[in-house]
Amino acid sequence: MHTICMMRMVFPVWVLKLNELLTKKMKKPVSKFGLSALVSQPTPAPADSVDTLLFAPSSLPESPGAAAPSAVAPNAKTRFTNVLPTATYVQLHQLAFWDRRDMSAIIEAALQEYFASRPEAARPLPEPERLKRKLPKLS
User: Which residues is 72 bridged to in the sheet?
Assistant: First the structure.
């Protein structure tokens, strides 16, 4: 039996011949059992070059994050991430456990109390700043 070494792997010659037969482009797969639909068809090459596909201006709309946020209802919730000192974070978990309340409800109550003492919290941002921060318009 003859063998050929390719990329540190040894294949019998018949395996290489079989591989050649299987990878040749077939005009139409033929199956005497009617299984031609199960045979994968060769995909045609794209008409455009890779550079055209990569660098051509697209007609797709901009990403959802790039668009200005629309108006939302005042009772809508927004998920965000923040960093707290570890001791504060532990206290928040302890209070949530012992009061049987969600941490978000505790944070909201604390912020509402803080905002009540700070009148500038009720002043709307200038429109360019609101857009820069991607904040929705409250109706």
Answer: 138
